[in-house]
Amino acid sequence: GSSHFGSSSAQGPCLIFASSGSRRICAQLCRAHAAAEVPMAKTAATVKTTRGAKLGPKAKLSRKALAAFVLQRPSAGASTKALCADLGRLRRHLGRPVPLFGKRGVLQLAAPAGKKDGGAPAPPRFNKYTGWAEWRNAVFLWVNAAGGSFTNAFTRGGQQVNWFVGGARPTEQSPIVQRLLSASQGGKEQKPAEKQTKVLMFVRRRATEPYIYCGVCRYLSHDPRKKGFEFTWELRDFGTLSNSPYFGELVQADKQVPPARTAARRWA
Fold first, then answer.
1. For residue 62, what is the enclosing H or E element?
2. Is 189 helix (H, G, I), strand (E, B) or coil?
3. 267: which residues sit within 8 A by CB, 6+ positions away?
């Protein structure tokens, strides 16, 4: 029978045959073409990791590796203790909800910018189970206005607020307590790095809501006899905060809300 030949394509030779015998020949040619491409596909699918290991076409990436690939950056960066927080970037959010959610979101917003043309910086590592996060130049304090393990109360119209260290029986010898006291009280023995340490507070009404940035804290007192080791702070930016409706909601937060510990772990 008659036959018609078309042009070749990426999917194989494009042949159109009128007779059944010719169609069988076409099918055989297509199968041969596909078989020839399989080794090339397998070779292309085999990649080398930075450690030299090979991943076959059926290999599965870990969540961390997948996140790094999708975001085009490492899934976790350096510890906050090794970084300086960008306090200027935070300033524009004073008295307002932080646009990124939870502790991780706050730290991501405050993280220093990456190198030029180096892609997005990796989110800094931190301990989400503590009530604070240490940077080289600052300490962030986390507060739940309602619920949580301790009762945090605003006094003097919201100008003062208490905060608890928490953890396993903190004392005045605990590293975080020593740093907060040294940074706040000063003294001849104060180290240069401690003089530059700023204490900043982030408060949320409950665990399922974003943090409100409440600015810089000034030390007033501490009470090691209180369970959880209590600090009392004065909000130095109270003049600005008092005009914020978001801050007003924090001050009026209902203290009778049951502790939302499960939600706190989920959204931390």
1. none
2. coil
3. 101, 102, 207, 208
Q: Which residues pair with 141 in a beta bridge?
A: 132, 201
Domain count across the chain = 1
**Distance, C-alpha 141 to centroid of its chain:** 16
CA-wise closest residue to 181 among 226, 135, 217: 217
In a domain, 59, yes or no: no
CATH number, domain containing residue 129: 2.30.280
Which of 233, 230, 234 is CA-nearest to residue 222? 230
Pairing of strands 138-144, 198-204: parallel
- First-to-last alpha carbon distance for the chain, in angstroms, is 74
Domain-located, residue 10: no
182: left (phi over 0), alpha (psi -120 to 50) or beta: alpha
pLDDT digits over 98-122, tens only? 999 999 999 999 999 866 555 556 7
Compute the half-sphere exposure of residue 87: CA atoms within 13 Å on the CB side of its CA: 16
**Structural domain span for residue 227:** 77-111+124-256
Chain centroid to CA 44: 34
- Adjacent-strand bridge partners of 218: 234
**For residue range 132-182, what is the model confidence (pLDDT) as tens digits?**
999 999 999 999 987 667 888 899 999 999 999 998 889 999 999 999 999
Answer yes or no: is 41 within a domain.
Answer: no
Residue 185 lies in a domain: yes
